[in-house]
Design a protein that fits this description.
The chain is built from 13 helices and twelve strands. Bound molecules: guanosine-5'-monophosphate and manganese (II) ion.
Length: 347
């Protein structure tokens, strides 16, 4: 399919270097970030299917487990979990000749796996759409204008002259990541090219209705009650056009929290009139941290905010971070930061 992209994306030298690397069978590890989402699992699995079909010995190694609503994805059962299958995973990283890192751009994003990636002898290939990539990959395909890493995997296959090799399994994986990272095709990074790719993926067997339903129609009563609790906890700071939600470990336990249950909660804040900045703070007693998600509408840059104050990062309108302090301490720190952004949040 001819895409007519406006942005020159992956540099020709890197495309040729990758073609050369893949010209003979290799041992390859494909890595998503910690707490992988639809884009991370979709992109790693799509690439895994492709590389295997070309005769490469390929394994997806995830830093930890991923939510149930992604487990239906073709190939999901073969993903190695570094936390659970630790020895096997370490061996694969140690022996890999090529390591693809997908949907993240600095090695700190893979938790306990970081040190094993740092000492791996493999050639690194980065495919990612987050801001400010670090410099660890020999072959880089980094483009912050892209809707998703899954869309980039499609382009990558195009650069490798391989879009005709996209199977229905791959199409379903790529579709999923584009859908989840674009908020079902509504975020600003969704372009006409994104839609052309989506059309081609449907032609190649992506079951759009089934994918949507498998990802979004998966509520359990306890998850809906947890959402009720989160919405009840929402604090609205009108002076700063900001809302935040807190969820304590006690509340998560009360509503039988399982991985992925809080996905999307933070977005409710942005559905309120005038709200530009929405945040959720989620306690994780086991890791001794609060996991924080930041969302914004308009040009308030939450990537910068997360990076500067909460040891995180991401995109202009969606970022994440963490805090080592209690909910009360973190909220008080967060609120103390807002006055310096009053102008940006209210202009
Ligand atoms: P979420 O809030 O849904 O976990 O993540 C929103 C965006 O920010 C995603 O693109 C995610 O990859 C990125 N992100 C989440 N947490 C972190 C973090 O701790 N560090 C960095 N650099 N990016 C993060
Ligand atoms: Mn992504």
């Amino acid at each position: 399919m001819v895409l007519n992209c406006i942005f020159a994306a992956m540099n020709l030298e890197h495309i040729n270097a990758l073609k050369k690397l893949l010209s003979a069978p290799k041992k390859i590890a494909v890595i998503p970030h910690k707490n992988p989402d639809g884009d991370a699992i979709g992109s790693t699995l799509a690439l895994w299917h492709y590389l295997k079909s070309k005769g490469h010995e390929t394994v997806v190694v995830a830093p930890n487990d991923f939510p149930k609503f992604l487990k239906w994805m073709p190939g999901a059962e073969s993903v190695l979990n570094f936390e659970k299958e630790n020895t096997q995973a370490k061996n694969i990283l140690h022996n890999a000749e090529i390591i693809f890192t997908l949907d993240f751009n600095h090695l700190g994003r893979v938790g306990q796996m970081t040190e094993y990636l740092e000492k791996a002898a493999a050639a690194f290939v980065m495919v990612d759409h987050h801001q400010e990539p670090s410099d660890y990959a020999e072959i880089m395909y980094s483009d912050v204008h892209m809707s998703s890493t899954c869309e980039m995997v499609y382009h990558l296959l195009d650069y490798l002259d391989a879009t005709d090799d996209i199977t229905s399994e791959m199409a379903n994986c790529i579709y999923t990541g584009i859908m989840t990272d674009t908020g079902s095709f509504k975020f600003k990074a969704t372009t006409s090219t994104t839609h052309r790719i989506i059309a081609d993926l449907i032609d190649k067997g992506a079951d759009n209705t089934a994918i949507h339903s498998r990802i979004y129609d998966t509520n359990s009563p306890s998850r809906l009650h947890l959402l009720g609790c989160a919405l009840k906890n929402m604090v609205i700071l009108e002076a700063y056009n900001t809302t935040y939600i807190t969820l304590s470990q006690k509340e998560l336990d009360q509503y039988k929290f399982t991985k992925g249950d809080t996905e999307g909660f933070v977005n409710y804040g942005l559905t309120l009139d005038n709200i530009r900045f929405a945040v959720i703070f989620i306690e994780n007693k086991e890791e001794g941290i609060l996991k924080i998600s930041f969302r914004s509408a308009g040009d308030f840059d939450v990537n910068n905010f997360a990076r500067q104050f909460f040891n995180g990062g991401g995109h202009t309108n969606a970022a994440g971070g963490k805090s080592d302090f209690s909910i009360a301490e973190t909220i008080s720190y967060f609120e103390s930061l807002l006055p310096q952004f009053k102008k940006a949040l209210t202009k």
